[in-house]
Amino acid sequence: MAAITRLSFDVAGLADFHASTPTIPERAITSRRKYRAVWISDVHLGTRGCNAEMLIDFLDHVDSEKMYLVGDIIDGWAMKKRFYWPATHNDIVWRVLKRAKRGTEIVYIPGNHDEMFRQFTGLDFGGVKIKRQAIHTTADGRRLLVLHGDEFDAITLSHRWLAHLGDAAYEMMMTLNRWLNRVRRWMGLPYWSLSKYAKQKVKNAVSFISKFEEIVAREAGARGVDGVIAGHIHKAEIRAIDGIAYYNDGDWVEGCTALVEHYDGSMEILHWAEEMAARESQPESEVRLAAA
Ligand SMILES: [Mn+2]
């Protein structure tokens, strides 16, 4: 509970953000690619797994009229265990609030890792509206239900491994596996695979993902909308399931993806690690950005 109090203190401190400056300076806004709407989720701020620099780069290159934060933005679970909050994580909060101030309509739908924000549903923090769910109407008139997705955890039971995403637990298990087998070899014992056990878990995860997608799409169909946008499972996706458009914006722990809506209503997944790699091989575009 102590960590929650500490987190609340940090949230209260956000009021000073407009007067502060980020540690990584913000780049020119004139050259930003603009979309009608952007969805990001599963950022897991407060964990070592969060690719903060990559998200900062994304926010500095992409702009939108509307932005949805689809949950697990801040990882309250991880912060309860161990407080971790580097300056780059503040830089992300700073950029989101700055964006709201500039006129981007921002909707924050807390997930299960940041469920402490659900108590603020209906409130507005510096232009960031907190909601449990939202309906987004695309430029081509489609109604899409936006939710985090943990609502379906009770139905999709084999999800416990998800708690370890954005956590060092999985990596630690792999390291442990190496050491364990080094000792076993030294003792003349055969290889025993802890990683095989882990892979079995991942195999279960694959069937979990398709099950999740189908259940979420079915629920959207039952609610009479044209499609659904979720996060939660760290798997970016655009596909039709029984006539319902299923979208998932992915995450910023492994995939580093965002979902965007173009001005004609078409949707696309941006793979930011690939975008950054492509830009590095074409340094002139970076020069143009700096000059703008
Ligand atoms: Mn989640």
TrEMBL record:
Top-rank taxon: Bacteria
Sorted UniProt keywords: Cell inner membrane, Cell membrane, Hydrolase, Manganese, Membrane, Metal-binding
A Pfam match: Metallophos
GO molecular function, one term: UDP-2,3-diacylglucosamine hydrolase activity
Gene Ontology cellular component terms for the protein in this record: membrane
Ranges where the Calcineurin-like phosphoesterase domain occurs: 36-235
CDD domains: MPP_YbbF-LpxH
GO biological process, one term: lipid A biosynthetic process
Listed PANTHER family: BLL8164 PROTEIN, UDP-2,3-DIACYLGLUCOSAMINE HYDROLASE-RELATED
Name the record gives this protein: UDP-2,3-diacylglucosamine hydrolase
Source organism per UniProt: Sphingomonas pokkalii
Lineage: Bacteria, Pseudomonadati, Pseudomonadota, Alphaproteobacteria, Sphingomonadales
